[in-house]
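Sat 14:20. Reprocessing the chain from the morning session after the first attempt stalled halfway. Input below, unchanged.
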Amino acid sequence: MSEPLPFRIVNWIGIIDQLTSTEANRALKSLGLQLPHFVLLNHFSRRPDEARTVTGVARALQQPQPGVTKNVQKLVAKGWLREGVNGGDGRSKLLVLTPAGLAKHRAAVAALMPGLTRAFADWSEKDLRTLFALLDRLKLWFDSDRDRP
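Finished this time. C-alpha cells:
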C-alpha cells in the first residue's frame, strides 16, 4: 500500500533537502562556509539592514537557540555579522549583516548555481515558475501554521 499523497510530497521534499544539503556542503567548502552558516547568511540577506536578535533568528529558523548562538558567534568572528547593543533588552544583542557577510552570501549563491543549473537544465521557464509558485504556497501555509497549539 502506498502512503497518502500529501505524505509522499513532503517526504520527497525532505529527500531533496538531504540530497541538496550534501551537494551544498561540497560546493560551499571551497569558500570556507558550512551549510548552517550559509543558512544564517541567507536569512540575513533577505533584509540586510534589519537588525535581529538570536532569539528572533532561532524562532524564524525553528532551530534551538544554543545552536544558533554558536553559529552566530562564528559569523561574528569572521566579520560576516556585526553585534550591536540592544537598547530594549540589555541581555541580548542586535545582529546585522555586514558588507563582507553580504559578499560571502553572494559568493555562496554563485558557488551553488552550477549544480542548480544542471538540475534544472531541461526545465522550461514555465515549469520552474509553476514549481516555485506551488512550493511558495506550501511554505506560506506551513509558516502561518507553525504557532498553532
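The chain has one domain: 10-145.
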